[in-house]
Input
Amino acid sequence: RASYIGLSLSNVINISRQDSYLAGLIALILGLIPLFIFIYLKNYNKDKNIAETILDVFGSFGYVINIILIIGGFLFALVVFSDLIYFVNSQFLFKTSPFIIGVCFIIPIIYALFKGINVIAKTSLIMFIVVIIIIICLVLGVFNGIKLENLEPCLVTKPSALFHSAAIIIAYNIIPIFLLTMIPTNMVENYSYKKTIIFYFLALLSLINAAFLTISVFGPELSLLYKYPEFNLLKNFEVGDFIDRIEKIFSLEWLVALV
Output
């Protein structure tokens, strides 16, 4: 979900245009395959992480698989971290060196690692609940700006393009959950696969909602002009005269999730 704003949404809109929310629906359905694989791996051997499990199953060849996984995880982290720095640099600290911004984020990352996985997980859970509340408020705040004609004509995107967009969403927003297999299940307090499924649907529905609101308010052409269309959508958020400029809170949640 954290990778959706900077890495996924713009690409999805570029490919699927006004049918971008349909790509989200396809991703929700197809994403169940990696989700259930993830749940199976979490319950396969609750005392070991995925690296140890691979060594048990594949023997010496498991070292090769683990190296490939480490390289893949490192490259993904590098892409996400680079986008994080670019976002902060372009939206808030445009006169600050990207190197300085990167150092400022590395320090809390190291601190969080020393605090342990439970602290990180609880912080992420709290911020996730906050963003769900923001999304509900966002729907109410931009309701008057929704123009259904921006979704027309619908169903004009080729199936191949829709599945391409769905593959992007799955690659950046669902596959990364496998990083959690590095943590043995027994180390996670009150772990439940039912909770995993619930949070999966909440997260994917929030992505679909983001695409729908962005397209219906801005239209596909205007959305493509923004590097972060959902962030710009939040700038138009207003409920009465007392709640506005909520993008700052949303940015905080997104930054915490990315870190």
Q: What stands out?
A: The longest helix spans residues 61-91. The chain has twelve helices and two strands. The mean pLDDT is 79.
